[in-house]
Design a protein that fits this description.
This protein is an alpha/beta fold. It has a domain at 37-158 and 212-255 and 264-344: 3-Layer(aba) Sandwich (Rossmann fold), CATH 3.40.50.150. Helices cover 36% and strands 25% of the residues. The protein has 14 helices and 16 strands. A hairpin with a 2-residue loop joins strand 6 (161-166) and strand 7 (169-178).
Length: 362
């Protein structure tokens, strides 16, 4: 057992089985042995690759989207340019470079990054070495003022709880011990179905449903900040557009899926984002989407951007650009599994990227 496994086992022996949410919080954020605290998880040498690491086109288009929203707000100077969970800082660096084409944007932008990992903060500092950056541990720490915020693969790592339906009702799935090994077991107590969406209350026996109070709280905080100060937020993550049963908890280690309980602190833990729950948590704000990432990026002009890059590229580079375009937009890649939604303060023009029929606005 590694140090974190020993710690978790001791906690379970002392206090009994813990929720999956508590397990995720410890595995990812333990101050000494947590996954995000102790390592750089990104890139080919890490455990997974995010869209900004695939191609500069992703961050550039996000930057232009942010510049459009800044203009829609009346080009406030200054304004908070925020990223939640910025990874290595690649997206922010690409976005700033592209948005600099908008006169006044770079001067007005005050960069704020919400990040708890000291390893990733150091990487972000290197990526944004020529920029003045403020770091924060929580969304609630963001300063007052007009705000443009981006959250790419931020919500998927926030803790979830799982409930399983049995003949007598819903039971919470807990992390327990079997000998010296972590395992899942059901809490014998039946939980009320009231917190669950109506669509899943009639789910069949053994169905699993996931909820994330942490995600709803983060979305509510962001939305209330935008409502109070004016602004827009762009959320990009993998998940489903409507609440539905399913066990989506997964662990990634060295680009391979592993048992979520087997390597706490040494593997990335995530679960699919329920975008319907995020929309509901954004109460009072205007929401757009979710849209598939592929459709969203195509509306922003990613194909044209790829063509421009290829004009000055070598044959090998052109092939890489084509592969990156497919990775970001292909229906069999990130194009459909990954979704995009926007949340804005009232009174703005419609944000780009959400104009196709079937995209939802509330």
């Amino acid at each position: 057992m590694n140090n974190l496994q020993t710690h978790l086992a001791d906690c379970i022996r002392l206090n009994g089985p813990m929720s999956i949410a508590r397990f995720m919080a410890e595995a990812l954020g333990h101050p000494e042995w947590g996954y995000y605290i102790s390592r750089d998880p990104l890139g080919r040498a890490g455990d997974f690759i995010t869209a900004p690491e695939v191609s500069q086109m992703f961050g550039e288009l996000i930057g232009l989207w942010c510049a459009d929203r800044w203009q829609a707000l009346g080009a406030p100077d200054p304004f908070n340019f925020v990223e939640l969970g910025p990874g290595r800082g690649t997206l922010m660096a690409d976005a700033l470079r592209a948005a600099a084409a908008m006169p006044g944007f770079s001067r007005a932008a005050h960069i704020h990054l919400v990040e708890t990992s000291p390893v990733l903060r150091a990487a972000q500092q290197r990526a944004l070495a020529n920029k003045e950056v403020a770091w924060h541990d929580h969304i609630a720490d963001l300063p007052a003022g007009p705000t443009i915020a981006v959250a790419n693969e931020f919500f998927d790592a926030l803790p979830i709880r799982q409930f399983q339906r049995k003949d007598d009702g819903w039971h919470e799935r807990m992390v327990a011990l079997r000998g010296e090994q972590l395992c899942l077991q059901l809490n014998p107590a039946v939980v009320p179905s009231a917190p669950l969406p109506k669509a899943v209350q009639a789910a069949p026996s053994d169905a699993i449903f996931e909820v994330s109070p942490a995600r709803s709280a983060a979305m509510s905080e962001l939305s209330q900040h935008l409502l109070g100060h004016g602004g827009a937020g762009l959320i990009i993550d993998y998940g489903h557009g409507h609440s539905a049963p399913g066990d989506t908890l997964q662990a990634m280690r060295a680009h391979e899926y592993v048992d979520p309980l087997a390597h706490p602190g040494q593997a990335d833990l995530t679960a699919h984002v329920d975008f319907q729950a995020l929309v509901e948590a954004a109460s009072g704000a205007v929401t757009h989407g979710p849209a598939g990432q592929g459709a969203f990026l195509k509306q922003l002009g990613i194909a044209t951007r790829a063509e421009i890059l290829q004009r000055r590229a070598t044959a090998a580079q052109r092939e890489a650009i084509t592969a990156a375009l497919h990775r970001l937009t292909g229906q069999d890649q990130m194009g459909q599994l990954f979704k995009v939604m926007a949340v804005t303060s009232p009174g703005q023009t419609a944000p780009p990227g959400f104009a196709l029929p079937g995209f939802e606005e509330t």
